[in-house]
């Protein structure tokens, strides 16, 4: 398997931060982003932080852009307000305005997407990192990722490269989804070095989603790990990951990015120098494929599409060349997972 092909080589078209695109209510983002009048009218409701996070949201936008290039169409982007209390309103606004399909970026929409979709049975909805099964509507598709598998490879890389036998995991918000990143990372690290120390800390507790968009706090948490002996820290924290990279640069250590190839998207050469690899969750590919299936009429709601190592839906980036020398090790563990010889846990052992 050629995991190097998973690197996103600068495919993300970064733009101004969502805070510059949205009004004080956070209800409306940029309108049609290129494309043409032909093709689908795509609604895109972002997760916390909006477009410009150089991570999760940007990857979703890149998938929409690729779909528009292939199929025509246009996109309307909306971002949640500061406390993210208007998620249902965003989906409703897009549906009322005739956008179809509508893509909700992030599991935080799980509590509202079923109710909204039920009110608009002729509109197709997708939720990234959520489920389309048993949500009360048959027009919702879940776009899921085996993030634990990709994170396992991140743990393998961290343990193989660590010189101190001490690595760290910074999660944005304590939740079952982010805990699956933690579980995979820890399992991968311990598969290589059973006695390795894995420091774990979350920026915000369950229910408080500020941890995905708080670089200052991310920097403080990561700095504490570096000070405690970690030489590589994995940031599964959305926009807060920038703070982890800043702490790595200040400490002369290294970090691991998440979701997109953050070596390519971070923009700052000083931060690029510390991003050893990124655990890729190919949200862009999943979103593009979903829109393509909508265009050709094959979308079937009420189900989940799972992207894992076997489909190259997750993996590691090789940008910068920092882990080129351990590619054979990464490939070996990848094959063991694909062949079922290794079952990667989805929940932390402790």
Keywords:
six-stranded mixed β-sheet; six-stranded parallel β-sheet; Rossmann fold; 19% strand; 37% helix; 2 domains; alpha/beta; single chain; 350 residues
Count of helical segments?
12
Mean pLDDT across every amino acid position: 89
Helicity level, as a percent range? 25-40%
CATH class of the largest domain: Alpha Beta
Give the tally of structural domains. 2
Please count the beta strands (DSSP E, at least 2 residues each).
12
Instruction: Provide the structure class.
Output: alpha/beta
Q: What is the CATH homology-level superfamily of the largest domain?
A: Response regulator
CATH topology of the largest domain: Rossmann fold
User: Globular, elongated, flat, extended or rod-shaped: what is the shape?
Assistant: globular
Q: Order the strands across the largest sheet as they lie in space.
A: 2-1-3-4-5-11
Using only C-alpha atoms, the radius of gyration works out to 19 Å
Distance, first to last CA: 32 Å
Order of helices and strands: HEHEHEHEEHEHEHEHEHHEHEEH
The low-pLDDT segments are 1-35
Proportion of β residues? 15-25%
Largest sheet: 6 strands, parallel
Region (Disordered): 24-47
Membrane topology: Lipid-anchor
InterPro entries: BMP_lipoprotein, Peripla_BP_I, PnrA-like
Family: Belongs to the BMP lipoprotein family.
């Amino acid at each position: 398997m050629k995991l190097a092909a998973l690197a996103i080589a600068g495919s993300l078209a970064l733009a101004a931060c969502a805070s510059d695109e949205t009004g004080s209510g956070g209800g409306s983002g940029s309108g049609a982003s290129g494309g043409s009048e032909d093709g689908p009218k795509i609604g895109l409701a972002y997760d916390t932080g909006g477009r410009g996070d150089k991570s999760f949201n940007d990857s979703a936008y890149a998938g929409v852009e690729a779909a528009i290039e292939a199929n025509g169409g246009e996109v309307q982007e909306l971002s949640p307000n500061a406390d993210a209390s208007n998620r249902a309103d965003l989906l409703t606004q897009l549906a009322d305005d005739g956008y179809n399909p509508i893509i909700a970026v992030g599991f935080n929409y799980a509590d509202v997407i079923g109710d909204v979709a039920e009110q608009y049975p002729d509109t197709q909805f997708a939720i990234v990192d959520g489920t389309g099964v048993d949500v009360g509507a048959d027009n919702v598709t879940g776009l899921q990722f085996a993030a634990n598998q990709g994170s396992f490879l991140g743990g393998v890389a961290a343990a193989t490269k660590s010189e101190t036998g001490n690595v760290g995991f910074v999660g944005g918000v304590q939740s079952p989804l982010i805990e699956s990143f933690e579980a995979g990372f820890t399992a991968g690290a311990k598969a290589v070095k059973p006695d390795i120390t894995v420091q774990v800390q979350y920026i915000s507790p369950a229910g408080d989603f500020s941890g995905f968009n708080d670089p200052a706090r991310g920097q403080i948490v990561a700095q504490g790990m570096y000070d405690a002996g970690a030489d590589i820290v994995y940031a599964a924290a959305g926009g807060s990951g920038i703070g982890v990279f800043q702490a790595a640069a200040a400490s002369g250590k290294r970090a691991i990015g998440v979701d997109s190839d953050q070596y390519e998207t971070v923009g700052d050469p000083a931060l690029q120098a510390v991003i050893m690899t990124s655990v890729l969750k190919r949200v862009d590919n999943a979103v593009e494929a979903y829109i393509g299936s909508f265009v050709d009429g094959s979308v079937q709601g009420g189900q989940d599409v799972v992207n894992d190592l076997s489909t190259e839906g997750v993996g590691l980036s090789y940008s910068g060349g920092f882990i080129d020398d351990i590619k054979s090790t990464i490939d070996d563990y990848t094959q063991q997972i694909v062949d079922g010889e290794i079952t990667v846990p989805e929940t932390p052992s402790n």
